[in-house]
Specification:
Strand order of the largest sheet: 6-5-7-8
Radius of gyration: 22 Å
Shape: globular
Largest sheet: 4 strands, mixed
Order of helices and strands: HHHEEHEHHHHHHHHEHEHHHHHEEEHHH
Length: 455
């Protein structure tokens, strides 16, 4: 008979899976994808390391640091493990340029990798151990996210933060050698610290919750190691995380197929520094800009057709800052049609202040179409005295159907490393990341990414 979902001991199954899973059980394709995720992690971390958001947070958290055991990526500073986990996760997420798991639209790497790198500076960790724990952490957070999607995000929970804390706890617990019982306790503490609100998108506060996911997940595992217990069912309990923050949690899907399917294979990497649902909009606008017959002054309206989630997440007119522009279709369409570019400079305060971009963005309207995937969009430019021009993108660059290549990820790291002005040399870091599985000590990676810049 089919299993009754209400009787599935989800916490126990996940804990036992993480505790028992061996490195040999991780397929080669998944191992490679883990390294790709880390190449992207360092690219976006080194881009964001000197952003005012990180500088302000580092100054405040620095007043309470408990030592200097851990590296702050790209900043030439050291701090304690928990603050390092938080700040490095914030750096990776601050520009909204980090990876995206489909279909949850979660950014899985920042909370897990930041927690693991911090822990590795106090507990010797080989490259193989790190990658193993990283894969498992991503697996746990993404499965939890899938079980409560899409209702969880629709209700206003920031899924990277709320679910990332479980990934960080699982990964840190694996490195610490926790058994199933102690891992379950770590999930209890993680569930009690899971938070993050969609309302904060476009502000510095959003990055704080991503940092907390890394910090609190690491703390949860460290507490569990000391015997700090928790409820038996922090996930599936009547008042547990899944039922409190989800509408109809899919417990059977969450616990099913563990070790047979791997969520890292549904991870994607952005070519543009904004919400992933904007990727096809940007590419359509790039195509329209390349049309020599397009006169910006003649545009009456810009019609964007896409999945309803596109409008829900990016209908943000009259944004005031570069941070807000990262999740605004109005700004994306305006700046790309005006400049023909879509890099970090185009999603900055300076770009937002350009009146021509603001005026053009005000002409955007949306059409929801459930038949569109999240990777697809159509942009139609309507003109008073000329035929309309349109561009259709079925699968944007960086999607599962059109993934960024290894070389493209390397180029992203090189480009963003220069943008962040950390003083790091990207070449040795890239080489070390591809060789990570054979490394005896992952701290060598952090030495290459420590940087010289100080805010």
């Amino acid at each position: 008979m089919p299993e009754n979902p209400t009787q599935i001991a989800v916490t126990q199954r996940l804990s036992e899976f993480v505790a028992a899973c061996s490195w040999d059980a991780i397929p080669g394709q998944v191992r490679h994808e883990a390294i790709r995720s880390l190449v992207n992690f360092f690219a976006v971390s080194l881009a964001g390391c000197n952003d005012p958001t990180i500088a302000k947070a580092a100054r405040v958290l620095g007043r309470f640091r408990a030592g200097e055991q851990a590296t702050l990526i790209g900043r030439g500073e050291r701090t304690d493990l928990l603050n390092a986990a938080a700040l490095n996760a914030m750096s990776a997420n601050v520009f909204d340029f980090d990876d995206t798991h489909i279909p949850t639209v979660m950014h899985p790497t920042a909370p897990v990798a930041a927690a693991l790198f911090a822990l590795a500076e106090s507990t010797p960790v080989s490259g193989r151990q790190f990658l193993h724990a990283f894969v498992l952490g991503v697996e746990i957070e993404c499965r939890i996210g899938k079980a409560i999607s899409p209702g969880h995000y629709s209700r206003g929970w920031h899924i990277t933060s709320t679910c990332g804390v479980f990934g960080a706890a699982a990964a840190a617990g694996k490195v610490l050698g926790l058994d199933a019982q102690h891992l379950a306790w770590s999930f209890g503490s993680a569930a009690n610290q899971a938070c993050g609100l969609v309302e904060t998108l476009g502000t510095m506060a959003k990055s704080m919750s991503v940092g907390n996911a890394a910090r609190n997940g690491l703390l949860s595992a460290l507490l569990a190691r000391e015997g700090f217990d928790g409820p038996a069912q922090p996930l599936e309990g009547v008042r547990g995380f899944l039922n409190v923050t989800g509408e109809r949690p899919d417990l059977a899907g969450l616990a099913g197929g563990l070790g047979d399917t791997w969520e890292l294979l549904s991870n994607t990497y952005k070519p543009y520094p904004c919400g992933v649902v904007l990727n096809p909009v940007i590419e359509a606008c790039l195509e329209l800009h390349a049309n020599r017959g397009l006169d910006i002054a003649s545009i009456d309206s810009i019609e964007i057709t896409g999945h309803p989630l596109l409008r829900q997440r990016t209908d943000r007119p009259a944004v005031r800052t570069g941070r807000e522009s990262q999740v605004s279709a109005q700004h994306a369409a305006g700046v790309v049609l005006t400049t023909g570019l879509a890099g970090l400079e185009q999603f900055s305060d300076a770009a937002v202040a350009q009146q021509a971009v603001r005026d053009l963005g005000s002409k955007v309207c949306f059409v929801d179409d459930d038949s569109f995937s999240l990777d697809a969009a159509r942009v139609a430019v309507k003109r008073a005295d000329k035929p309309a021009l349109s561009a259709w993108v079925e699968s944007a660059s960086g999607s599962l159907k059109r993934p960024l290549t290894d070389r493209a990820l390397e180029h992203k790291l090189q480009t963003l490393c220069a943008y962040g002005r950390s003083g790091c040399e990207p070449g040795p870091l890239i080489d070390a990341l591809w060789a990570l599985e054979a490394s005896d000590d992952v701290r060598a990676i952090l030495r290459l990414a420590a940087g010289k810049w100080k805010g």
